[in-house]
Design goal:
The complex is a heterotrimer of chains A (about 100), B (about 475) and C (about 475).
Chain A: H1 5-14, H2 21-38, H3 73-77, E1 83-84, E2 87-91
Antiparallel strand pairs in A: 1-2
Helix pairs in contact in A: 1-2
Chain B: E1 3-14, H1 53-65, E2 73-74, E3 76-80, E4 90-94, E5 103-109, E6 112-125, E7 129-135, E8 138-142, E9 149-155, H2 162-179, E10 191-201, E11 211-216, H3 219-238, E12 246-251, E13 256-259, E14 272-273, E15 280-281, H4 284-292, H5 298-309, H6 313-319, H7 323-336, H8 340-358, H9 369-380, H10 386-397, H11 403-410, H12 418-431, H13 433-440, H14 446-457, H15 464-476
Chain C: H1 6-14, H2 20-33, E1 40-42, H3 45-60, E2 71-75, H4 102-109, E3 113-118, H5 152-159, E4 166-170, H6 176-181, E5 185-188, E6 208-213, H7 216-226, E7 256-260, H8 270-285, E8 289-293, H9 301-316, H10 335-346, H11 349-362, H12 368-388, E9 394-398, H13 414-418, H14 425-430, E10 434-441, E11 447-453, H15 459-472
Parallel strand pairs in C: 2-3, 7-8, 7-9
Antiparallel strand pairs in C: 1-3, 4-6, 5-6, 5-10, 9-11, 10-11
Classes of the chains: A mainly alpha (about 100), B alpha+beta (about 475), C alpha/beta (about 475).
C-alpha cells in the first residue's frame, strides 16, 4: 500500500506536524516504502492468535490510595515556555 | 405527528479517592493552580502511571450495586488527542474491555417504575481545566484536576423524556453518594453529565441522528437542555431539514444548546491498549472483599423500612434518600425505643422542614438522632404534648440543648397533677359563667372554648387528655 | 588507569590507589581531549567532581559499595535532576530535568559519579546515532564510520575509554548493536528487570535500560545496581535481584547453545559470520554443545516492530506540545498552529516519519490490519523462542549483520537502516534478555559482536556464559588505535 500526499497531510495533521508541500512528497515516498516493509507481515496467517500487548502476562499491580507527592510547581514551571499566576499559558482555546 | 425522544446519558462521577488515579498527587478541590499536579500529572518526559487500588475498589462496588457483571480482566487504553488540558496528549481510559459490564437501575417517575439499562462503567482519568479569563489573549491551564479518577457510567438509550433522564440521573447520584464512591458535588464538577439526544416518529424502530450535549452540571439544566434539544430537533425535521451528528454545549443563560466549534473536526482517537499498564485484574477474592463492604442499597433499605417499621412509601423514601439520613432514622428509633412511625414523622416532616429551610444536609443538623429520640421519649412519657414538642424542637434547632434541657429551662413540663388542672378549670368556669350557662343549655360546641381557655391558663402545658376528661365532668356540674 | 575495567577500578579505589576525584578528573580530561567523537551532549565537571568528593568522603567513612566513586556515563535519555536531559532532540534541547530517573537514583545511591550525558539518536530512534540533534557520533575504531545507535554516544565513550562504563537503552537493539560495532559488552535486560521510570519513553512495551561495559563482569556489577522492582513502574517485575557477579564463575560444561538457522542466512556479511562461528567454536572448546534451532517468524520481526514501536512512539511523543516544557515555536497563528509548528520544528525527520507511521497504523480503518496483526505476530515470535528454549539454554548468533558502516551510508534510506537490527529486534518483541560481546574483528579491523539471548529473567546465566568466554579470550580488552 502506498500513501499519496493527501493522506500524508491528513496523518501529519492528526499527529500535529506541520509539513510543507515539498515535504509531503518526500514523506509520501519514504512512508510508502516503510509500509511496503511492514506489509511483509501478511506473509503469515495469524488467524486465532491472541494479540500480545505486553511481554509478560502479569496483571496490573495497584498502588495504595495515599498522597505521596508534594507541590513542586515552582520547579516544574521553571522549564515551562510560558506561565502566569501559576498557570501554563497557551494560545486562546476556543470552544 | 407524534414524536418520541430517545436519550442516553453518560455520567462522569469523580471517585472520591485521596490521591489521583495514576499518581500520588492530592485530589483536593480548590487548591492553588498546578500545586496538585505532580510530575506524572504534567506528563514530564519519562514518568509512568501506577493505578490507585481504591479507584478499582470503588468501580467494582458500583458494578455490584447495579447488579452488573464485573470483568475480571479489563484493559486501560489510550485515547489520543491534542488539547492543552490533556498533558500526555492522550487520556488513559478503558475502551474495549471496561471493568463494569452490563447492569441496570430502577427509576421511579410519577409513581411508575422503569428499569434503565446501564451499558457499562469504565475507569478513566480526568483532564485539567482551561481558564479563559484573558491572559493577554492567552488561555491559562490548571492541571490540578488532571488525573483525578472518574467512573464513566454509560446508560442504554432507554430514557424517553427529559424528566426520565433527570430521574435516572438523580437515582444514580443518590447511589454513588450512598456507596461513598463520589461526593456528588455538582458545583465542583464531581458529577457531570453528557446527554445523547435524538428524536424519532413514534413507532419507528430506528433511532434518529443524535446530538451529544456536553457537560451539563445540574439536574435542572439537564432537563432544560434536553427539552430544548428535543424541540430543536423536531423543528429541524418538521421544517424539512435534518439533524447533524455533533457535539453541542448548553448555554444556561440563553437556555439553548449550540454547536461546539472545536469539535468540528472529525476525531480519530487511535485507541490502543496502554503499554505502560498491564490489564487490571479483579479476581473473585477482590470482588468478595468489596462485596463485604457494600452497604444496604437505597431501594432495599426503603423496602425494609416499609416492612420493618410500617412506614408509608413516601416517608420511607425520604428517610432513605441518603445513607446518613437512613442511619439517623434508625439510630433515633433505637434510642427512643418508641413507635417508629412517630419517630419517622418527627424526622421526615418536622426536622426535614428545618433542614430544607436552612438548606442543610442531615449530617449538618444541629439536632442529633439522639436528641430527636429524647424528644420522642418525652412525648411518649407524657412529659410534653405533641404541640409543645414542636416548640421544643424549634429550641433544639436553635441550639438551646436537648429536649430535657429545653423543657426544664422553659418550664414546658406537662401538668398532669389532677388537682392543679382542676384548679385551673375551676378558675376558667368561674370567669365564664355566661358561656357555662349556654353550654349547659345545649351549646356543646363551647366545649372547645373551655379547653382553649384552660390550655391558655396553663400555658399549653396541661395534659390535653386530662383536661378533656376533667372539664367534661365539671361542666356537667 | 583509564584502561581499567570497573571491577579493577573498584579495587583500586578500595585500596586507596586512586581517589574518585582523581578518576573523575582523568575521564573528564579524556572527554575533553576526544571531544571530536561527539560522544557527550552534556558534561558538567563541577557537578561530577562534587559527586566524586562525596563518594570519597563516603569511602573514608567505610560506607563504600562496589560502584562508589566509579564514574559512569549516562545516556541522555535518563532524566537526571538538575541536568540538561535532551534525548538527542531539539524538542528537549533546553530541558533541565526536575527529577531523577530510578536508574539514576540507584546509581547515585550506590555512590557512582555521573560523568556526563551521552549523545544518542533522537528519542532513541536510529541505528547509527546520525539522527541526533547534536550531530553524529564517530566510532573510535574508525572515525569515518558510525558507532551504531541509538546508544552511540555511550558506545563511543566506553570504547574510547572516555568513561569506564555507561548506560544505554534498547528498544530494538540500541544497546547490543552499538556494543557490537564498538567492541563492548552490552546487555539488554529482560523486560521488567530494570525500571523505566524517568527513562524517556520511545516504545513502552519494548524499552529496557541496561549497561554498556568493557566486560561481562562490569555488566554484572552495573546491572546489580540498575535492576530491581520499582513501584513507580507498573511494568517492573517484583522479583529478587540475584548476585550477578557471584554467578559469573559457573563452568560451561553441559551448556546447550541453540543456533537459529535463520540468523546465519542471507544478508549476513562473511566476516561477521566467520568471527561468530569462531566464537561458537571457542564455546565448544569450553564444554558447550550446540544444537540447531529455528525461529521461523524471525524474518517478520522487523515489519512487526515497525508497526508496534512507531505506534507506541506516536502516542508517547504527543506530550511534546510546547505547553509545559521543552521547545515552543516562536511564531504561530493559534493553538493548533502552535502545536503543528512546535512539533514540526522540534522533531527531526526520522522521528516525524515514525510518528506518522505509528499514527497511521493506529488510525481508524487500519488498526486491525496493522496494529492488531503486528501484536498477533509478536506472540508468534515470542512462541518461537519458547520452543527453541526447550532444547537449549542460550541462543547465539551475530548481533548485527555487518560491522560499522560509513557515516551517511544509510541515512537517506530508512528501510536499509532498519535492517541493521534484524537480529536484535525479535528479542525485544519477546521481552527476553540479550547481550552482545566482542568476538573478533573483520578484515578492516572493525569489531564484530556475538549476540547471546537468554530465557526470561535469565541474566545470571547470560552474564556467566559471556564471562567464561572473556576468561578464555581477549577481544574485549582490545582498544582502538589512538585511544590507548
Amino acid at each position: 500500500m502506498s500513501l499519496d500526499r493527501d493522506q500524508v497531510r491528513k496523518i501529519a495533521h492528526l499527529a500535529r506536524l506541520e509539513i510543507s508541500e515539498a515535504e509531503s512528497s518526500a514523506y509520501a515516498e519514504s512512508l510508502s516504502r516503510i509500509l511496503g516493509l511492514i506489509e511483509q507481515m501478511n506473509a503469515v496467517d495469524t488467524t486465532g492468535v491472541e494479540p500480545m500487548a505486553h511481554p509478560n502476562d502479569a496483571g496490573l499491580r495497584l498502588r495504595a490510595d495515599a498522597v505521596s507527592e508534594a507541590d513542586q510547581r515552582e520547579r516544574f514551571q521553571a522549564v515551562a515556555p510560558a506561565t502566569e499566576a501559576g498557570l501554563y499559558l497557551v494560545p486562546k482555546v476556543i470552544e | 405527528m407524534e414524536w418520541e425522544s430517545v436519550i442516553g446519558l453518560e455520567i462522569h462521577a469523580q471517585l472520591s479517592t485521596r490521591s489521583k488515579a495514576f499518581s500520588g498527587a492530592a485530589t483536593r478541590y480548590g487548591a492553588e493552580p498546578n500545586t496538585q499536579a505532580c510530575a506524572v500529572d504534567i506528563a514530564l518526559p519519562g514518568v509512568l502511571p501506577v493505578f490507585n487500588e481504591q479507584a478499582a475498589r470503588m468501580a467494582v462496588k458500583f458494578g455490584l450495586a447495579i447488579g452488573a457483571q464485573i470483568n475480571h480482566r479489563s484493559v486501560f487504553a489510550r485515547k489520543n488527542y491534542f488539547y492543552p488540558d490533556l498533558p500526555k496528549g492522550y487520556q488513559i481510559s478503558q475502551y474495549e474491555i471496561p471493568v463494569v459490564a452490563k447492569g441496570s437501575l430502577t427509576i421511579e417517575l410519577d409513581g411508575h417504575e422503569r428499569l434503565i439499562g446501564i451499558t457499562r462503567a469504565h475507569l478513566e482519568e480526568d483532564a485539567g481545566k482551561s481558564l479563559h479569563e484573558d491572559f493577554h489573549g492567552m488561555t491559562g491551564i490548571d492541571l490540578n484536576r488532571a488525573g483525578t479518577p472518574l467512573l464513566e457510567i454509560v446508560s442504554e438509550p432507554d430514557l424517553r423524556s427529559a424528566k426520565e433522564a433527570v430521574a435516572y440521573m438523580k437515582k444514580l447520584h443518590q447511589l454513588v453518594v450512598y456507596l461513598g464512591i463520589c461526593d456528588g458535588n455538582m458545583q465542583e464538577g464531581s458529577f457531570r453529565c453528557d446527554a445523547n439526544v435524538s428524536v424519532r416518529r413514534k413507532g419507528d424502530p430506528k433511532f434518529g441522528t443524535r446530538a451529544e450535549i456536553k457537560n451539563v452540571n445540574s439536574f435542572r439544566f439537564v432537563e432544560k437542555a434536553i427539552e430544548f434539544e428535543i424541540e430543536r430537533q423536531i423543528d429541524l425535521i418538521e421544517s424539512g431539514k435534518s439533524v447533524v451528528q455533533e457535539t453541542r454545549l448548553y448555554d444556561a443563560d440563553k437556555d439553548q444548546t449550540r454547536s461546539m466549534r472545536s469539535k468540528e473536526e472529525a476525531m480519530d482517537y487511535r485507541y490502543f491498549p496502554d503499554p505502560d499498564l498491564p490489564p487490571l485484574v479483579v479476581d473473585e477474592a477482590f470482588v468478595r472483599e468489596v462485596q463485604a463492604t457494600l452497604p444496604e442499597l437505597p431501594d432495599a433499605r426503603r423496602a425494609r423500612f416499609m416492612s420493618q417499621y410500617g412506614l408509608n412509601r413516601y416517608d420511607a423514601g425520604v428517610l432513605t434518600s441518603s445513607r446518613e439520613m437512613a442511619e439517623y432514622y434508625e439510630t433515633a428509633v433505637r434510642e427512643s425505643k418508641g413507635d417508629p412511625k412517630i419517630v419517622a414523622n418527627w424526622i421526615a416532616v418536622e426536622l426535614s422542614g428545618y433542614l430544607n429551610l436552612d438548606n442543610k444536609d442531615i449530617a449538618e443538623s444541629p439536632v442529633s438522632a439522639k436528641m430527636i429520640a429524647g424528644l420522642v421519649q418525652r412525648i411518649a412519657d407524657n412529659t410534653i404534648s405533641g404541640k409543645i414538642a414542636k416548640e421544643v424542637l424549634e429550641a433544639m434547632w436553635a441550639g438551646e440543648g436537648d429536649a430535657d434541657a429545653v423543657i426544664a429551662k422553659k418550664g414546658l413540663k406537662q401538668i398532669t397533677d389532677t388537682g392543679a388542672i382542676e384548679k385551673a378549670i375551676d378558675e376558667v368556669i368561674a370567669k365564664n359563667t355566661a358561656q357555662l350557662e349556654q353550654y349547659r343549655a345545649g351549646k356543646e360546641a363551647l366545649f372547645g372554648f373551655f379547653v382553649g381557655q384552660v390550655m391558655k391558663a396553663t400555658r399549653g402545658k396541661a395534659n390535653p387528655q386530662q383536661v378533656n376528661e376533667l372539664l367534661k365532668k365539671k361542666l356537667a356540674g | 588507569m583509564f584502561k581499567k575495567t570497573v571491577a579493577e577500578l573498584s579495587r583500586a579505589l578500595a585500596s586507596k590507589a586512586v581517589s574518585s576525584v582523581e578518576l573523575t578528573q582523568l575521564f573528564l580530561d579524556r572527554i575533553s581531549k576526544y571531544r571530536d567523537l561527539n560522544a557527550f551532549i552534556t558534561v558538567d565537571p563541577e557537578k561530577s567532581l562534587a559527586q566524586a568528593r562525596a563518594a570519597d568522603a563516603r569511602r573514608a567513612k567505610g560506607e563504600a559499595a562496589a560502584l562508589t566513586g566509579i564514574p559512569v556515563a549516562q545516556k541522555d535519555i535518563f532524566c537526571a535532576d538538575g541536568w540538561l536531559t535532551t534525548c538527542g532532540s531539539k524538542m528537549l534541547s533546553s530541558f533541565i530535568a526536575p527529577y531523577d530517573a530510578t536508574a539514576i537514583a540507584r546509581f547515585s545511591g550506590a555512590g557512582a559519579v555521573l560523568l556526563g550525558k551521552t549523545n544518542m539518536d533522537e528519542f532513541a530512534m536510529g541505528s547509527s546515532n546520525e539522527t541526533s540533534h547534536f550531530g553524529p557520533v564517530r566510532n573510535p575504531w574508525d572515525p569515518t564510520t558510525v558507532p551504531g545507535g541509538s546508544s552511540g554516544g555511550s558506545a563511543a565513550a566506553v570504547a574510547a575509554r572516555l568513561a569506564p562504563a555507561a548506560t544505554g537503552t534498547d528498544t530494538g537493539g540500541s544497546i547490543r548493536q552499538p556494543a557490537a560495532l564498538t567492541n563492548l559488552t552490552g546487555l539488554k535486560p529482560s523486560y521488567g528487570r530494570v525500571s523505566r521510570y524517568g527513562m524517556i519513553a520511545f516504545a513502552s512495551s519494548l524499552d529496557q535500560g541496561g549497561p554498556m561495559t568493557q566486560s561481562a563482569e562490569d555488566a554484572a556489577l552495573l546491572l546489580g545496581v540498575m535492576a530491581g522492582f520499582d513501584q513507580r513502574d507498573s511494568t517492573s517485575v517484583d522479583a529478587p535481584v540475584p548476585d550477578f557477579v557471584a554467578a559469573l564463575d559457573h563452568p560451561l560444561k553441559g551448556l546447550r547453545i541453540g543456533l537459529p538457522k535463520e540468523y546465519f542466512g542471507d544478508g549476513l556479511s562473511a566476516d561477521v559470520a566467520k568471527a561468530v562461528e569462531a566464537a561458537i567454536a571457542e564455546y565448544r572448546k569450553l564444554g558447550a554443545q550446540t544444537v540447531e534451532v529455528s525461529l521461523p517468524n524471525s524474518s517478520l520481526a522487523i515489519p512487526c516492530y515497525y508497526v508496534l514501536a512507531p505506534a507506541e512512539a506516536s502516542s508517547n511523543l504527543s506530550r511534546y506540545d510546547g505547553v509545559r516544557y521543552g521547545f515552543r515555536a516562536a511564531e504561530y497563528k493559534d493553538l493548533i498552529d502552535m502545536y503543528c509548528k512546535t512539533r514540526a520544528q522540534g522533531f527531526g525527520a526520522e522521528v516525524k516519519r515514525r510518528i506518522m507511521i505509528g499514527t497511521y497504523a493506529l488510525s481508524a480503518g487500519y488498526y486491525d490490519a496493522y496494529y492488531l496483526k503486528a501484536q498477533r505476530l509478536r506472540r508468534l515470535i515470542a512462541q518461537d523462542f519458547e520452543q527453541a528454549f526447550e532444547v537449549c539454554d542460550v541462543i547465539m548468533g551475530p548481533t548485527s549483520p555487518t560491522t560499522a558502516f560509513k557515516l551517511g551510508a544509510k541515512s537517506d534510506d530508512p528501510v536499509s537502516m532498519y535492517l541493521s537490527d534484524i537480529y536484535t529486534i525479535s528479542v525485544n518483541l519477546a521481552g527476553l534478555p540479550g547481550l552482545s560481546i566482542p568476538a573478533g574483528f573483520d578484515g578492516k579491523g572493525l569489531p564484530v559482536g556475538l549476540q547471546i539471548i537468554g530465557r526470561y529473567f535469565g541474566e545470571e546465566r547470560l552474564l556467566n556464559v559471556a564471562h567464561q568466554y572473556q576468561q578464555a579470550t581477549d577481544w574485549h580488552r582490545r582498544l582502538p588505535k589512538g585511544f590507548d
